[in-house]
Amino acid sequence: MTTTKRRYVEELTDGENLDEVYLATEKQLRANRNGNLYLQLMLRDRTGSIGARLWNVGEAQARTFEEGDFVHARGKVQLFQGALQVILNALERVGPELVELADFLPHTDKDIGKLLQTMRGILTKVSNPHLRALVECFLMDQAFLRDFARAPAGVRNHHSYVGGLLEHVVNMLEAADRLAPLYPRVDRDLLVLGVFLHDIGKVRELSYDRVFGYTDEGQLVGHIVIGIEMLNDKLKQVPDLTDEPFPPDLLLRLQHMIVSHHGTLEFGSPRLPMTPEAIALHHLDNLDAKVHTFVRDIEEDRGSTSSWTPFSPSLQRRLFKGIREGEPPVEGQ
To answer: Considering the domain boundaries, does residue 234 fall inside one?
Structure first.
């Protein structure tokens, strides 16, 4: 194993020889047209991930490591169909005690403490006493705040890094804070609470200790249902602060925002948005997620001279990166 400064994924270039430790994810044993087995996986560190293949693999060799293990990878980086990949010639499991864990999970480049401070500042401006008490019940829960500050917003999509959920929520809170004066018929307090609560279930839906994935609860139930459950649990504490029951109408509106925030039935929302606050929440959520995804895909398309990214199946399009100075546009791009 190399003892020199580690070679991060974002630093890899076409044609270089690779000799480094990475986190193995998305492992698949496949057969080519001739029936010969090969291993396909993603090699990940905190700066990103890169696809890798190891040809002529036996089943016994494929069982020497699992997803979430650290592996010492040797091979060559090459550009294939507009993206970098690694053709491996050796792959060996490495014990977690031999690596620096902070090198492997991607992390927000924002200051977690400042993000939490910004979130608190916006949430504590809520004027409705019942909603303000609900906010306090969450902010007093140190275990919840710890998980909320660490969780990604997703496994592969937007904000898929440690602190991603917090960053996503703070972006939305700041956007809601600026947009609220333009829409006086939208209840600002409700919208702010909806932004804060809409993805809280992800702290239990996702696992994020070594590799991003789904917990059993996340796979079987999902973050929308988990979020409703977490909201209902916290509501039991609110009367201790207000000396009166939480208004049923207010609870319904909060629950509706959580269950409808994906916007459409085909994207997992049990209900379509039916209140001004719910539709505003959905579009704020979608705006932040989509802009983040576009920027990420453009920034991560390294090693290509094209003005366009490769086709993205999830976005159903290629993205324009801009024409590099001194380079004519590529015909047909």
So the answer is: yes
Centroid of chain to Cα 201: 14
Determine phi and psi for 283, rounding to 5 degrees.
-75, -35
Three-class DSSP category at 106: coil
Q: Are 319 and 333 in contact (CB under 8 A)?
A: no
Give me the CATH number covering residue 233. Answer: 1.10.3210
Count the neighbouring beta carbons within 10 Å of the beta carbon of residue 291.
12
Instruction: Write out the chain's pLDDT in tens, 333 residues.
Output: 444 688 999 899 999 999 999 999 889 999 988 889 999 999 989 888 899 999 999 888 889 998 889 999 999 999 988 789 999 999 999 998 888 877 888 889 899 999 999 999 999 999 999 999 999 999 999 999 999 999 999 887 788 888 999 999 999 999 999 999 999 999 999 999 999 999 999 999 999 877 788 999 999 999 999 999 999 999 999 999 999 999 999 999 999 999 999 988 888 889 999 999 999 999 999 999 999 989 988 887 765 678 888 888 888 899 998 876 555 554 444
Domain that holds residue 222: 112-293
Helix (H, G, I), strand (E, B) or coil at 319: coil
Rg value, the chain, Cα: 23
pTM higher than 0.85: no
Quickly list DSSP for 244-311: SPPPHHHHHHHHHHHHHTT-SGGGT-SS---SHHHHHHHHHHHHHHHHHHHHHHHHH--S--SSBPPP
Structure tokens belonging to residue 13: 């270039």
Could you tell me how far CA 113 lies from the centroid of its own chain?
19
Residues 159 and 90 both lie in one domain: no
Structure tokens at 248: 């049923």
| Same domain assignment for residues 96 and 200 | no
